[in-house]
Amino acid sequence: MPMGPSLISRLLSPLAAAAALAPGLSRASYGLDMLPPASPIASQIYDLHWAIMWVCVAIFVVVFGAMFYSVFKHRKSAGAKAAHFHENTTVEVVWTVIPLLILVGMAYPATKTVLDMKDASNPDLTIKVTAYQWAWEYDYLQDGVKFNSNLATPRAQIEEWEKTGAPKNKDYLLEVDNAMVVPVGKKVRLLVTANDVIHGWYVPQLGVNQYGIPGFVKDVWFTADKPGIYRGQCSQICGKEHGYMPIVVEAKAPEAYAAWVKERQAKSAPAPAATAAAAPAVAEDSNKVWAMAELMTSGEKVFAANCAACHQASGKGMPPTFPALDGSKVVNGAKGAQIALVLNGKPGTAMASFARLSDAELASVMTYTRNSWGNKSGDATQPAEIKSARK
Amino acid sequence: MSNASSGGYYFAPPSHWPLVGSAALLAMAVGGVLLMNGLAGGLATFLVGLAILVYMLFGWFGTVIRESRGGLFNSQVDISFRWSMSWFIFSEVMFFAAFFGALFYARVYSLPWLGDLDNKLLWPEFKTAWPSAGPYLPPQFTPMGAWGIPALNTALLLTSGITVTYAHWALKEGKRGALIGGLAATVLLGFVFLGFQVYEYVHAYQDLNLKLTSGIFGSTFFMLTGFHGFHVTLGAVMLTVILFRCMAGHFTPDNHFGFEAVAWYWHFVDVVWLLLFVFVYWV
Amino acid sequence: MSATTHAPAHGHAHDDHHAHPTGLKRWLFTTNHKDIGTLYLWFSFVMFLMGGVMALLIRAELFQPGLQFVKPEFFNSLTTVHGLVMVFGAIMPAWVGFANWLIPMQIGAADMAFPRMNNWSFYLVVPAAILLVASFFVPGGAAASGWTLYPPLIIQQGISIDMTILAVHILGASSIMGSINIITTILNLRAPGMTLMKMPLFVWTWLITAYLLIAVMPVLAGAVTMLLTDRHFGTSFFNAAGGGDPTMFMHIFWFFGHPEVYIMILPAFGVVSAILPAFARKPLFGYASMVYATASIAILSFIVWGHHMFTVGMPAAGNLFFMYATMLIAVPTGVKVFNWIATMWQGSMTFETPMLFAIGFICLFTIGGFSGLVLAITPVDITLHNTYYVVAHFHYVLVSGALFSIFAGIYFWLPKFTGKMYHEGLGKLHFWLSLIGFNIAFFPQHFLGLAGMPRRIPDYALQFAEWNMWSSVGAFIFGFSQLLFLYNVIECIRSSRKAPDNPWEVQDSLEWTHLPSPAPYHSFETAPVVK
Ligand code: HEA
Ligand code: HEA
Ligand code: CUA
Ligand SMILES: [Cu+2]
Asked: What predicted TM-score, i.e. pTM, was given to this entire model?
């Protein structure tokens, strides 16, 4: 609705402030409103919400004002005598038609926003977003940049079953290792899909919430208004780590964005296939021969980011659903079989293909699992072995 | 519509049959779960449940038939039966609607989407077509043609619809011979239909490589025709029971709701088949 | 017809009808609508406590950020089974319990049309509940996919999913039989003179509810059957690789799911429409338009399901259609609200416990309706979908909607059910504690949702901490207040406060005007004549 929103939010802000400053509550961050919008669609949504909200409040006040008036005036203890009327066609028509008109008034601006929202044509930039249990993969189709984005909050801050957890980061659960980076003011089109189950790519401040549906590609778009970091979370239950797959979008000025792309491209350049991802832990060169210690350190990181959710940091898994890797026949058996399993996944189970990880990452996690906990194969797996195992 | 129900309406006395039925379904459910997950004791538990269910059906329906023969059901009870059978058939219609919905949705939405431009990212080779087993499952099966057995089956079922109506007419006219003849013909046509259906399934599996696992085509084809076949089986069994009851002289020209209920059911199964013929086999 | 030919058998049947088995047999084999109603109501309360304990575990875990009590997968199971148990175990059976007790009495029938089948409807709910609850104890834990059972997540999980699916099948069979029974009773067993437009509104709302049930339960059965075959028999309904589509499940599920939520609220409208006139001492305003509004809600409920799926990526036309259709439902619902207020207007009101719950219902349900309307606006739903705003919305319509009106109904009819008066002071205490606890628990969830807190997560970012804390505190206040309700009912049954036949002086409903309190085991063996 045209004039409402900004006025409305101005009206509301003292209210919010009052709530925040109320004695005893002052230290709290009592958010009462949607987060500040950061894209044109999000702004429309924000305004739309307040407009409708206030219409509802107004109706509520009128209707329940009448009711409570009646409750106080027409009570037996106040000496009220019951009237006997029980029908009136005129009022019935009136209170059918007026709400109908109000609804038409609401539907009009909403329709405009829906049409804008759905118009993903002529994007400046297209990013394919693939959801995995439980990480995001971003593939910048034009720029050949592709990487994974995992939760960065350490487990020690989360798990408090046995003892109180470590002090929590400021952005507890809303921080990732690699954020999606986009240029400000450019129309970014996302092609959202998923690899295993349904997930939801949800960043409220950008006005985007789109399910990733395995086997289907759905598109949405946004344009970030100003530089900043926008956080969101997976919005559709996707298994046990559903609460732990945040989304972070970093909007940069176009020049800064171009520089970022350059840097990313440089990182992933040596990797041959498009599958190579850029993990900061390991520089990408599939032909390099790694030392055991290097592999183990990097492997531990890769494991924590990609595997621990199911197989647990202890390697004990959570039988029967998630098998232990500690003592597993596969892990302690021939390398080839394990590489094949991790590369291809096991269809019909939660064990997905991890081919999206780079050769070096896979090699190091392979080495790590084969030489951790009770597993003592003693062998190192080199990126070249992974490379040759890819078809 | 609602006339005095004072005393005349028959309200069933306490009964143990419902409880037996619940025990049966619980056993079947537990057995089914074990069976589907390959766990021990599944089949046995399921069969015990099924046996209890059959026992319950005999017992319960036997009781109802005795009550009916004992003249306990007045005309108002008869109306209750009519309402309930109509609503039951409506519920069956909605059950089939779910599967027809799946068929239409897959054909009108999912497959075109899978073949559209954006989805080239995931399925570069896939072209939308019907019949289809989807973009990944190997699609080398032959769909079932409409004009062989299915057309014959259509004729069979339509004829059986006529014979059952003829039997009904005969029942109302008190023509016992025609009644039994018409009904027997209906039962026979029903079982022949089922025989063809079995033959068709064998043919699909052996010659056409068309299986339940043949993607969305196989899924909708077998689930729709399968549930229909299951309903035809039920209908045919019920018709057989009714046939025996006719032979035993249970029905009179103006009191034969058991007969009519099954005839309605049979017509319903008929209509579902026509939809199947058009949407599953033909277009 | 046949009755004339076989007249002698008749007397025998009559005797059967009067046989009163006692002890356990009475409850197991019963064909008496009041006994079956009682069974349903107690069953529902037990399930409510179970679902409530799960909710309290959820709220305990969400009291502060971090994982303190449960593992994430168990948390998901709690959420899922809490939803399923509350919907299928608590709210729906409670309404069937009311239907059993009240419909025959309100239309002047001696019993339900098919008493034996009635018994079966109840005794099917029990194995289903056993399957649902037992699924917590099988390897892999109970279903953890949310009560909406979306594939492919549900394909991944183990044996408990099969138990859940078969439980849903059995519940469906029970609901369909129960509904057929109710519709037949209403259409065929009304006393002479009880025309359709003279029936109490509770009967009307149930007639329409039963119709909805028969229309959508089989669809749910079909949907979960497809899940089962996808899981075990290699079909590809919901698998893109085979040409299926996970969104197809959502469409089928919500074709059931949306009418389902009205199945839970329409009988509530009926109860409130019975209570308000009694305590306002004034006839219900706009009876006919209430009937039409209920029917309109039911019809519209079939074409709005897409509002649960605005984020799946439907074409714009789909989004717009579902948005408009959903918004339309506000019109007939509004008509109901306005009629209720017009009923109170210029009445001579008193505020006993049923009335308090009924007024609480109108206010809080409307808040829930408004948040529903906010969600119906597609773009706004984009920001709020699957956040706590949705959780707040549906607890306002379900807890302060359906549940509050169940409480209202119980307090209202307890005198008729038991022949005793409940303790008014305790009843009022129950109301106020519930009202306060409920609002502390669920109002802040709106803010959490607006700030973007997703639902179905065991742990959350720090900025959500304060409101979650409040919400958990409120949930515990609300939860423990329900023990007071249990106490009230038992205290009432055991008390010696004999209830008059018509304590609320209701003028126009047969159970009050024509029957003593407690209602006799067999009522209206001779149909009353309604003028
Ligand atoms: C009893 C149950 C019940 C009832 C009655 C309703 C009623 C409504 N619901 Fe709700 N809903 C649920 C139970 C219910 N809902 C549940 C359980 C879910 C979540 C499921 C899940 O995902 O797990 C849900 C989710 C849900 C969503 C999806 C949210 C999401 O997942 O993103 C939407 C979106 O449109 C919605 C809308 C509505 C609307 C418009 C109504 C309307 O019927 C409300 C109409 C009432 C009013 C509007 C108030 C009274 C009217 C007036 C006083 C008249 C004047 C008013 C105006 C002119 C505005 N509901
Ligand atoms: C149908 C009705 C219904 C009812 C009545 C309730 C009642 C409650 N619900 Fe819930 N709820 C749903 C339907 C309902 N719910 C649905 C459908 C979902 C969605 C599920 C999904 O996402 O899939 C949901 C989800 C849901 C969530 C979101 C979970 C998540 O997303 O992870 C939360 C969180 O706060 C919640 C809380 C509560 C609370 C606190 C109550 C309170 O009202 C409960 C009151 C508490 C009690 C009644 C306990 C009483 C018992 C005791 C005090 C102990 C005594 C013990 C013994 C005697 C043994 N519910
Ligand atoms: Cu991914 Cu939830
Ligand atoms: Cu809905």
From this structure: 0.90
